[in-house]
Each structure stands twice: as C-alpha cells, then as structure tokens.
Design goal:
The chain is an alpha+beta fold. Helices cover 38% and strands 17% of the residues. The chain has 10 helices and 11 strands. The strands form 3 sheets. Strands 2-1-4-9-5-6 form a 6-stranded mixed β-sheet, with no helix packed on it. The chain has a 3-stranded mixed β-sheet with strand order 3-11-10, with no helix packed on it. A two-stranded antiparallel sheet has the order 7-8. A hairpin with a 4-residue loop joins strand 7 and strand 8. The longest helix has 26 residues. The structure holds copper (II) ion. Copper (II) ion binds next to loops.
Amino acid sequence: MSAPSDATTPAPAARSWPLSHAIEILRIGTGIVWLINLVFIVDPANRYWSSFSTTARSFAPTTVGGPGLADYVSAHPLFFSWAIALVTGYLAFSLILGLTTRLACFVGGFFSAMLLATQFGSTFLFPGGTDIGAHPLYILIYGVLVVGGGGTSYSVDRWMRAHLPAQPIRRLVRAPSHVPWSAAASTNTVLAYFVAAIIVSLGIGFGLVVALPASSGPAPPAAGTQPVAYLNLSIVLNATNGWPQYVPANFSVPVGLVVFTITDHDSPMNWSGCPCSVRGTVTGTETVNGSTVGMVPSSNVAHTFNIPDLGVQVLSPGGSVVQFEVDFTHAASYAWMCMAPCGAGANPYTTPPMGTPGYMTGTLTVG
Ligand SMILES: [Cu+2]
C-alpha cells in the first residue's frame, strides 16, 4: 500500500507483487471499458442524446415491477442522459488514472446496482439486445478492486499521497479507520461499506421501479408527432430459389414518424439465443397481429428488421403482421438487415439469403 509512511497510519500488509499488478490491470481494464462506453456516447453517429428517450422507454415492457421508471426516465431525458454520461466519464478517467479509485468503485457499484435493479427484467435476457447483462460482473469487479486496494500503484492517488502530503488529501487519508475513505480503513471495513452500499442501491432501484406509476397505455409518440408516412414490407419466398426475401429491400421514407408494416409469409423457426426484445421503436414495442409486445418468443422468430445505426430491432414471427413506428429525425441513409439465422446453407448465420442484398439486407433512405 502507498499509505504515507506515518507512524500514526499503519499501512496494511503489502500485497504480493503479481496480485497487486493483477489488481491494477483489472482497474485499468475496467476503466477502458468505460472509456469505450464514453466514446460511444460522444460519437454523434450513435445518436445517444437524441435517441435517449426512445432507448429508455424501450426498457419499459421488460422491467420487472412495471414500466413506471422507464417512462419517467424517458420523460426526463436531459437529466438522465447527462447523469449517465457524466458517471461514465468519471468512471473511465478515474479508473484508468487511478484518481479517487475507491470512490470510483463505490460510484460504479451504485451505478451498476441501480441499472441492474431498474432493468431487472432485461438483465436475464443477456445478450438480450442490451449490454446490461454485464453489471453483476462489474459489481464483482468493483468489490475486488475495493478489497484488493485498486489504485495503490500506477495511480494518481499514489502520486498525490506521495507529493501532496500537507493538504486535505492527507487529512482525508488519515481519517479515522472506521470511515471508508481512510487509508487506514481495514479491508473488512471497506468491504462492509461496499456491500452495504450495493444493497442500499439495489433497494433504491427496486423501490423506484415499484413506486413510480406507469403511464397508462402504450407511450404516445413524441408530442405533436403524427405519422408522415406508412411503409409496407413483405417477406416472401423467392419464386426461383425459395429463399425468403424482404420486398422491397431498398426504399425511401420522409423525415418524421413512419409507421412500418411487415407482412411475414415465411414459417416460424426456433431461434435459441434470440435477443428477442424490441428496441429503438417510438414506443419500444411492436404489434404482432394487433397485440402490443416488447418481446417475441424465441420459438417463433422468422426474421428480424434491424437498423443498427438507429438501435432499431423488430422481430417478425412467421406468418404474422408486425407494425411499429420509427421517428427519423434527419435525412440519412441507413443499412437495414435481418439478424435471425435464416440462411439456407450449412451455417444459417452466414449463408445466403443472410447478408444478401435484396433479400435480408438493403438500404433505407430517409429524406
Ligand atoms: Cu432473415
């Protein structure tokens, strides 16, 4: 440990060399994961800010405890999008630099526990079309970092303790050993605070989910938005080769709210491992033969309609009519594709018509 060599501050037992390095590698690696998330957030191509509300609402149908919290977050996108972005940025830089490492572990644990609690219904759909499945692992990592003294070496924390001994840093690390930020706090003390913090965070998260009332009925489209266009797609079997194909595969829609209808004439398939949740539509749902759903059983997904750049995923069961709405905010060109393994060859994930233009992928032009 890099506790000051001060007679009043007993340094915990030194860690063995390989373990201490493993802990710091884990810390920096976790920071890099958050940095990648931060890059995703700030990259305009991902439309994090503009699609935040829609993404948040898309969790509503699968949240255990009801859609109230997802609706609430969706209705306050400015606050929540910035809160998530700032926490993401803090975790990235704090963990990579080893600056306020222990605090970052608590913040990260709180963040993951809140996400876990509030999106609990989605968690076990991993990969489920959401990256939320990793949060139990993140909490475990923060616990390991807290217990293992992450940030003890190769860190700004270490540098500051060594070079800024006289000022508040020193008072902080010399705080009584029963407070969690004290350098003298025992592993057991820190771990107890960490476990308690996670339990409280989970409690707050579940409490919010249960306490916030759901808005009644399917969430309405953004205020004042009326459909500007209706687009009908069919999935038919090609008369020549028998492959299923989207007709049309290349099409244009105007900017604004577009109502899609997919009439699927293909047969169902059993797609184990299907990320079967609807994402990226205005309501976070689709209708299948008139019923509103946020998920489709994996035992009946013939094809999907994905627009990766917009985070749109819609599932098309065999022999069904699917409807959904997408709000296109600006003129652009997007690739769409089917992600369900509908290839006709040995590997249904890679053989045609999968990935074949005019069949299971094409171009959607907005504007
Ligand atoms: Cu397909």
